[in-house]
Design a protein that fits this description.
This protein is of the alpha/beta class. Helix 6 packs parallel to helix 7. The protein contains eleven helices and 13 strands. Among the domains are: 1-87, Spore Coat Polysaccharide Biosynthesis Protein SpsA, Chain A, CATH 3.90.550.10; 230-330, no CATH class. Strands 1, 2, 3, 4, 5, 6, 11, 12 and 13 form a nine-stranded mixed β-sheet that branches. It has a two-stranded antiparallel sheet with strand order 7-8. It starts with a strand and ends in a 10-residue tail after the last helix. It is globular and about 55 Å long.
Length: 332
């Protein structure tokens, strides 16, 4: 099973210096390693050529963000399995083997995420993907081990193999034939939550998304766009709404969209109370962007093949903020 590890890079020489060595050391025996460069202006390419000649380089013509960057690069990479991994991820010994074993045994499993722990404190899960992702009734994403901003300590509670709803873009594996069948990432997202959309669309096609807890990586998180950056708030709110417009089943569509208008408005007020009005403006801009392109995304809607594709019985907002259930194991 031919595997390609593909690291997307944009002006990230310092990250490559820190994290590329672990990927080469623990992965080159099992996979070909690529860096897909989004038209960097630093000396990333020269560094790779000089220090890691084993690593192949794909040079994109421009910086199209995460979505277009991978779409452009993967057109020229021949493999059965792609591993898309951020440049701020440290991998561990034998991290690939258990993932490939699942792919070999389960033809209908299309996407797999490893356990993602925090590089800055390796005893805790990391925000971006933790123990695998889910989506609630209103399209809000959350993870096993991370609900909103509450991060759980890793006590091996998620050392299992289980089906999840979405895999984190920080590090996940996908069958190349499925990636190309789905036409890759939706480039209108640019960055953030495009992996949720990709997984949602794969499940619409009848494929399974899984989490493999005995494969472990460590993610810095926010290395390219800090959590406090309003652009990140804009992208997360906008792209979460796009996921809803594109993928929520017809019978729930109006309820979910109207509810999101209200809930996102409450989030905007919360930012004001926290003296972060710039993030309130980011939420407003996210909605204005969605309204402007509403008809475009309605055309992208795909009919769901299953009625249980996302948790129609859970509002993560209600459980977290009202019922004060913060751990994944306490959710109902």
């Amino acid at each position: 099973m031919k595997t390609a590890i593909v690291i997307l890079n944009w002006n990230g020489k310092k990250l490559l210096e820190q994290f590329l060595p672990s990927i080469v050391h623990f992965s080159s025996e099992f996979a070909e390693i690529y860096v897909a460069d989004n038209a960097s202006s630093d000396d990333s390419i020269e560094y790779i050529k000089d220090q890691f000649p084993i690593v192949r380089i794909v040079e994109n013509e421009n910086n199209g963000g995460y979505a277009k960057g991978y779409n452009d690069a993967l057109k020229s990479i021949d493999a059965d399995i792609y591993c898309l991994i951020n440049s701020d991820v440290e991998v561990t010994k034998n991290w690939i083997t258990p993932v490939l074993e699942i792919f070999k045994k389960e033809e209908n499993t299309a996407i797999i995420q490893p356990k993602i722990l925090d590089f800055k404190d390796k005893n805790y899960f990391e925000y971006a993907g933790a123990g695998g992702g889910f989506v609630d009734l209103f399209g809000y994403p959350y993870c096993r081990g991370r609900v909103f901003n509450y991060i759980e300590k890793d006590t091996e509670q998620f050392n299992d193999v289980t089906e999840i709803f979405w895999a984190s873009g920080a590090c996940f594996f996908i069958r190349s034939k499925v990636y190309h069948h789905l036409n890759g990432f939706d480039e209108d997202y640019f960055a953030h939550q495009e992996e949720v959309d990709l997984c949602w669309r794969s499940k619409n096609e009848g494929y399974r998304v899984k989490y493999v807890g005995n494969s472990c990586v460590y993610h810095v998180g926010g290395a390219t766009l800090k959590e406090t950056n309003p652009q990140k708030t804009f992208l997360n709110f906008r792209n979460s709404l796009l996921n809803v417009i594109k993928n929520v089943p017809k019978q729930w569509f109006l309820l979910v969209v109207v509810s999101r208008l209200i809930l996102d408005g409450v989030a905007g007020i919360k930012f004001i109370v926290e003296l972060r009005p710039i993030h309130t403006w980011a939420v407003l801009k996210a909605h204005l962007s969605v309204y402007k392109n509403f008809s475009k995304f309605l055309k992208k809607r795909k009919k769901l093949q299953k009625k249980d594709l996302y948790n129609l019985h859970t509002s993560i907002v209600w459980q977290y903020f009202i019922l004060r259930r913060k751990k994944f194991g306490n959710l109902r």
